[in-house]
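Structure in, sequence out. Go:
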């Protein structure tokens, strides 16, 4: 399992036969977040909206840019990586002040003091996988643009209740390749 995590953090080293990337979708039936996709936008994870990607022009000209408007992920046993091609990858981390789920900038391993990159677990079912975090995931409508911020619940952080925030299950669907060169 350790090997799989290490490989997932280095997308360039994964052979296509072993690649395991997945998009995430929120499930909470009867809530406004049911079936919203988890997207990367502005260095943090959101439900809804669009994924913010960047791909350098020279790769674009060579046709090397993933042609998607989605966000996907790799790993999830311990650490969780963004499905990004950029050398060095991008890691998801959990902010210690509020539990917000964020990700490292391209070409930087900087993670704020106290933030956690560990503690995720991924289980593969017959039809789909599930990404888990000890105290669960919650989405809150605090962005002001109609999207929802994604939080990994921390034991010492109290998030607002329904209808501002909703807990959800993060359901994973298999994808074969990273969805972006890098997420911005
Ligand atoms: C919650 O606990 C963690 C670990 O002890 C700590 O790093 C973090 O600052 C705490 N957060 C808050 C909001 O108190
Ligand atoms: C997803 O990929 C995993 C690992 O390769 C595999 O075990 C599982 O059957 C796949 N699930 C689907 C629905 O294709
Ligand atoms: C979030 O939800 C609350 C409760 O429904 C609502 O009052 C508020 O206007 C919403 N905020 C945003 C930014 O959508």
């Amino acid at each position: 399992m350790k090997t799989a995590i290490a490989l997932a953090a280095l997308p360039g080293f994964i052979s296509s036969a072993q690649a395991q990337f997945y998009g995430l979708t929120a499930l909470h039936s009867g809530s406004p977040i049911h079936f919203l996709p988890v997207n990367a936008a502005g260095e943090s994870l959101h439900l809804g909206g669009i994924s913010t990607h960047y791909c350098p022009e020279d790769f674009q000209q060579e046709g090397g840019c993933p042609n998607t408007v989605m966000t996907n992920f790799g790993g999830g046993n311990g650490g969780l990586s963004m499905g990004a091609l950029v050398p060095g990858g991008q890691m998801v981390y959990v902010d210690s002040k509020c539990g917000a789920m964020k990700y490292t900038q391209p070409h930087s391993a900087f993670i704020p003091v106290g933030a956690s990159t560990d503690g995720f677990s991924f289980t593969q079912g017959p039809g789909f996988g599930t990404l888990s975090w000890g105290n669960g995931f919650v989405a809150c409508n605090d962005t002001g643009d109609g999207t929802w911020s994604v939080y990994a619940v921390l034991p010492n952080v109290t998030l607002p209740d329904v209808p501002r925030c909703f807990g959800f299950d993060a359901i994973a669907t298999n994808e074969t390749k990273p969805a972006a060169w890098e997420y911005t």
